[in-house]
Amino acid sequence: MSTTTAHSYSISELAQEFGITTRTIRFYEDKGLLTPQRRGQTRVYTPEDRVRLKLILRGKRLGFSLDESREIIDMYDPAHGNVEQLNRLLDRIDSKRQQLREQQRDIEKMLAQLDDASARTRAALKEQSK
Amino acid sequence: MSTTTAHSYSISELAQEFGITTRTIRFYEDKGLLTPQRRGQTRVYTPEDRVRLKLILRGKRLGFSLDESREIIDMYDPAHGNVEQLNRLLDRIDSKRQQLREQQRDIEKMLAQLDDASARTRAALKEQSK
DNA sequence: GTTGACGTTTACGTTAACGTAAACCTCGAT
DNA sequence: ATCGAGGTTTACGTTAACGTAAACGTCAAC
């Protein structure tokens, strides 16, 4: 029995918090990534909506398309479906993990490259100071 | 005195190796990311060109725009410039490193999320087998 | 000498992810 | 009553990163 404090957010609150525009949030809804409630006309966002938005933006920072982010978010959903569907889901999850690990390797290579560049630049600065 | 074996590549060789189209490679040239030699009309790519291409594609996998990739690649260049320029370069390098570290954190969070999803899916499978 | 395989330029088309603007409602405060 | 701050829908515009196609050159092979 978890007593969930039913806190809610307006669209502009979320926009401010994450540094995006309301247009962007509505666009995500249009693409089926968010489905807020309505109080009359007005959209009302739950903490769960907020989390979904957070995940979308995280995916974006990693270069994922909205479709990819949606797929990843849906992976966490109540795993409903038959055995075959569940097995396919497991495969997709694993495939995403592999992709993320490849990104990790890419980042490390790029970081090493930047370390090198930084060192060379500092060396060039030492040279300038005669 | 390093004896550089002047190996060269055709555009379709590079396209094949990296699983992209020749159109893409020409597009990168158009955007100033590659500047191959010409044998008559025909483009001829050096091993250095190949490396640049590799870096572009690595950046792409990390969600970087071509402009960002160009910036990163240029960071590795012969650090020419005065002290002020070199210092600004150092700042940009450091800023990129911070961004990459943030991406690392994002990836770890997402990996943890996927691990969780995977476990839950496997649990759902066990449930199915009664 | 024509036919492929490979190269080139030029140019219009496409998709994702929003930006921008107009035109309108709603409500609490002045 | 009006006004400003927020909300809404609708719709056209924009940018990046290529795709696609046409129209042409070149050269080794048949």
Would you write up a description of this structure?
2 copies of one chain form a homodimer. Chain A is mostly helical and 130 residues long. Chain A folds into 2 domains: 6-64, Multidrug-efflux Transporter Regulator, Chain: A, Domain 2, CATH 1.10.1660; 78-130. Chain A is 68% helix and 5% strand. Chain A has a two-stranded antiparallel ribbon. Chain A is flat, with a radius of gyration of 21 Å. Chain A starts with 10 loop residues before the first helix and ends with a helix. The model of chain A has no long low-confidence stretch (mean pLDDT 93). The interface between A and B is large, with 45 and 45 residues. The first copy, chain A, binds a DNA duplex (30 and 30 nucleotides) through residues 10-12, 21-24, 26-27, 31, 40-43, 65-67.
Query: What is the 3D shape of chain A?
Result: flat
Counted beta strands of chain A: 2
Oligomer: homodimer
- Cα radius of gyration of chain A in angstroms: 21 Å
Summing up helix and strand content along with how strands pair, one would put the structural category of chain A as mainly alpha
Provide mean pLDDT of chain A, rounded.
93
CATH topology of the largest domain in chain A: Multidrug-efflux Transporter Regulator, Chain: A, Domain 2
Total individual domains of chain A: 2
Uncertain ranges of chain A: none
CATH architecture identity of the largest domain in chain A: Orthogonal Bundle
Helix content of chain A: 55-70%
- Secondary-structure element order of chain A, N to C: HHEEHHH
Number of helices of chain A: 5
Distance between the termini of chain A: 71 Å
CATH class of the largest domain in chain A: Mainly Alpha
Largest sheet geometry of chain A: 2 strands, antiparallel
